[in-house]
């Protein structure tokens, strides 16, 4: 088991991505590379992270939910995708769950997440 974790750590280090510390409840802005014909541009996707799966390993992913034109839209991003240009934490949310799937049924004030004002970055 330790050998598998070591190989995964080497693969993540080889990618060289700088991924900020974020969790479910945080509002994040993901810069995603979009290819249209021969041109490539970065399109930002901003919303609430409602889940993180498989940790920060090579198979990690996270789901971002936003409201677009009155309709809820969710998108799952692989954490170490080559199509992700950058990930930026816009605001930290104070939540008591690791999966916020209940936000799918909420609208308006009941769907709000309180901002965490006393956040400290974990020591590396």
TrEMBL record:
Family annotation (PROSITE patterns): RIBOSOMAL_L19
Pfam family, one: Ribosomal_L19
Membrane-spanning segments: none
UniProt xrefs under InterPro entries: Ribosomal_bL19, Ribosomal_bL19_CS, Ribosomal_bL19_sf, Translation_prot_SH3-like_sf
Source superkingdom: Bacteria
Keywords assigned by UniProt, alphabetized: Ribonucleoprotein, Ribosomal protein
GO terms for MF: structural constituent of ribosome
Gene Ontology BP, a term: translation
GO cellular component: cytosolic large ribosomal subunit
Classification via NCBIfam families: rplS_bact
Family: Belongs to the bacterial ribosomal protein bL19 family.
UniProt xrefs under HAMAP family: Ribosomal_bL19
Role noted for this protein: This protein is located at the 30S-50S ribosomal subunit interface and may play a role in the structure and function of the aminoacyl-tRNA binding site.
Protein's recorded name: Large ribosomal subunit protein bL19
Lineage: Bacteria, Pseudomonadati, Pseudomonadota, Alphaproteobacteria, Rhodobacterales
């Amino acid at each position: 088991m330790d050998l598998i974790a070591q190989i995964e750590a080497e693969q993540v280090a080889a990618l060289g991505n700088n991924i900020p510390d974020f969790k479910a409840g945080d509002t994040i802005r993901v810069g995603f590379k979009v290819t249209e014909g021969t041109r490539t541009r970065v399109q930002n996707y901003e919303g609430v992270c409602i889940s993180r799966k498989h940790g920060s390993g090579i198979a990690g992913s996270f789901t971002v939910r936003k409201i677009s034109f009155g309709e809820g839209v969710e998108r799952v991003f692989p954490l170490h995708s080559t199509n992700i240009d950058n990930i930026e934490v816009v605001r930290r949310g104070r939540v008591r769950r690791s999966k916020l799937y209940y936000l799918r049924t909420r609208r308006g004030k009941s769907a709000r997440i309180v901002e965490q004002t006393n956040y400290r970055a974990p020591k590396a």
